[in-house]
Design a protein that fits this description.
By secondary structure, the protein is mostly helical. It has 2 domains: about 110 residues, no CATH class; about 90 residues, no CATH class. Helices cover about 80% and strands about 0% of the residues. It contains 12 helices and no strands. α1 runs antiparallel to α5 and α4 packs antiparallel against α5. The longest helix has 28 residues. The relative contact order is 0.10.
């Protein structure tokens, strides 16, 4: 359960409690940015609250120090060209540190009480992952293309696509863990029908490809997350 708690703390600190203005300031001021240190402090606090065990203070300290080192190196070496690549390297490095900490702690057989909330932490972690973190991951993937140019004439609600994506991923996840795969097919069909008119009117192959790639990535991540949760629980 320590592993899931550490991943949950990471998701909260890196995606939910880190405003975009903090990210921009860190990229501009790098190690001189106060937001970098606030960000590390949030990770330490989130990890402390989730673990809630004095005996695990080395874990909390390691999380804080390693997060500062990884984020600091990313800021120092980041450029416009490698920003997308460093984002994924940064996230992979954090996950590897978390896994290493978990493996080292499991040898000590640290026992934490398991209650109703603890039993549902894997579910909460998966659901949170499918919201803002996946949205940011997809946004980072599409940095390769100038999406704003393709959608500049689109009259849509602010952040509507983001929230639609979150809802569809959560629904796909729920359908899979409840073993209703046919509902996933229905959801894909329904979205295809609604999108058909827009794509037909746009007559833009690039926009069609963007929608198709985005849909496949969104549904794919939700499906894989659902399968992993089902297998592990």
């Amino acid at each position: 359960m320590i592993l899931v708690k550490l991943i949950l703390a990471h998701l909260i600190g890196d995606f939910f409690l880190q405003p975009q203005r903090w990210v921009k300031e860190k990229e501009k001021k790098k190690l001189k940015s106060p937001k970098l240190y606030f960000h590390i402090l949030i990770h330490v606090i989130a990890t402390t609250l989730l673990l809630w065990n004095v005996a695990l203070w080395p874990v909390i300290l390691t999380i804080g120090v390693s997060h500062f080192i990884i984020d600091g190196l990313k800021l120092l070496f980041q450029t416009k060209k490698n920003k997308r690549l460093l984002f994924f390297i940064d996230q992979l490095a954090h996950i590897l540190v978390i896994v290493f900490i978990y493996l080292s702690q499991s040898k000590n057989a640290v026992n934490l009480s398991i209650d109703l909330v603890e039993q549902n932490i894997p579910l909460i972690t998966c659901l949170l992952f499918l919201t803002v973190p996946v949205s940011i991951i997809m946004k980072t993937i599409f940095l390769k293309w100038n999406i704003s140019e393709l959608t500049k004439n689109s009259k849509s609600l602010t952040d509507a696509g983001k929230y639609i994506g979150i809802l569809e991923r959560v629904l796909v996840f729920i359908f899979i863990i409840s073993n209703h795969w046919e509902a996933v097919g229905f959801l894909i069909t329904a979205k295809s029908v609604f999108r058909f008119g827009d794509l037909k009117e746009s007559k833009t192959r690039q926009l069609t490809e963007y929608v198709l790639i985005g849909t496949l990535i969104s549904f794919g991540i939700a499906t894989i997350t659902g399968i992993i949760y089902t297998v592990l629980t």
